[in-house]
Amino acid sequence: MSAVDPRLLRQAGAARAYLAVTVALGLAGAVLIVLQAGLLARLLAGAGRGTGVAALAGTLGWLAVVLAGRALAASGGEAAALRAAAVVKSRLRRRLSEHALALGPKWLTGQRTGEITTLATKGLDGLDAYFARYLPQLVLAVAVPVAVLARVAAADWISAVIIIVTLPLIPLFAALIGWHTQAQTRKQWLLLGRLGGHFLDVVAGLPTLKLFGRAKAQADVIADVTDEHRAATMATLRVAFLSALVLEITAAVATALVAVEIGLRLLAGHVGYETALLVLLLTPEAFLPLRNAGAQFHASTEGTAAARRAFEILDTPPPAGQGVPAPGALANAGASCEDIVLDGVTVAYPGRSRPALDDVSLTIRPGDHIVVTGASGAGKSSLLAVLLRFATPASGTVSVGGADLARIPAGDWRRQIAWVPQAPHLFTTTVAGNIALGQPRARREDIVAAARLAGADEFIQRLDRGYDTPLTEGGRTLSAGQRQKIALARAFLRQAPVLLLDEPTAHLDQASARHLLSVIQSGQAGRTVILVTHGPLPPAAAGTRVVTLDQGRLVPHDEAVLA
Prior knowledge:
Elements: H1 6-11, H2 16-48, H3 53-108, H4 113-125, H5 127-155, H6 157-166, H7 169-204, H8 206-211, H9 215-267, H10 273-314, E1 340-347, E2 357-364, E3 369-373, H11 380-387, E4 395-400, E5 403-404, H12 410-414, E6 417-420, H13 431-435, H14 444-453, H15 457-462, H16 480-494, E7 498-502, H17 510-523, E8 528-532, E9 545-550, E10 553-554, E11 560-561
Parallel strand pairs: 3-8, 3-9, 6-7, 7-8
Antiparallel strand pairs: 1-2, 1-4, 4-5, 9-10, 9-11
């Protein structure tokens, strides 16, 4: 167990100024604590000797100034630490989202999206306690005892020796308890992520669960996970409360030892009254920051547990070749007019007994219209995943105009592609905003023209606000066919040279399917189109190439060009 996570501190590079202010104010607070004890001891000793109020007015004034300074240092340090936490959280969230996008859909399909959402929101919010309270308290836990010991040693070396001997007991007990706390907090965080992910899955699939009468069973599962999370949370709190008790008792016993020895020597006349008061006032201050650091460690463990999970994701390497430029590759839009050549491409997924694609070789020429057929699981979607750079071939190469696709930055390549997946996603914005996702500056007339091509204009005009109708997340107020048409309009508007369509007619009625195929064959003549289907072969125009996949392999001698 490390008191400070170096990876979190490395993330705080942009917040270095705020952390420097926090440390400086913490050191100032340590000096002010010693000054406060000295002034208070002088004030009480003077009052005990019968010194008048007028004579003590200067001491009272300075004491008020020191108290105000301590308050300002404490509040300023916490404010600076909170700003540092905000910067670190923002940077971590941005890196997490960017890395998740770089890892791609294949990685995301093996994750619980609800867990990642919980991690990026509530999980990383727990870093406030780490930066705003725990780290400043660590600074005080080092600075204050050093300052106190220096002052006590100058006043009474015997008391300083007792403090030095007993002081290490606090961090020793805190470390022993902290190891157990970290394990409890990790379990609590894992259960919270599981709860968030399962709850999101249940909400997304609620219509299906209701249809099959399984909603109550899933509610019981959520209740069980909630009870497990509650038990883990209470166990963590129990450890935190017990640790506070242990640290308080240790500090109280150590303070009592100093109080007894300084009291006996005061009665024997071996130490002065003001010195005894100074030692008694400073001794609790030596232990207080260490006790507080132990308490704040427990408060910050949830955030650090979430940060460790975030670092695990950030340490996951993205697919090979995500952004290593090849000289001259895609230097201009004309690069999309080059041949796309798959040479012996094999794609394998963990846990599968056979490759999704097995030694596939295919040449796609500019302007080709290719229909890829085959049964479910034949490798059609994997072929599109390779072209989209979502899957990396285990062997073989993909080249564009002679340049290795793996050496072309993924973002540059994907700007050449418009893609309609089997289950397109619509976002929480207007219909027009969803269509213009790939062309955010598109004119309204171009958006309407693309919708007409996709057969979506008619139903959009019937919506309450037409193209300005806001959609819910996933577009669940629309039918599957309507969502498909909006996604097709999005792809048509993008005007990318390569158009990839994965089962584009799966949710369309026969009339809409015939209209779409007609638009693809006639209206997209200048684009390279690859259409995947596992159903009956759609009516194809002259020049359309048909490619069949069977268990990941191209069927020999089956590729045909319809005349």
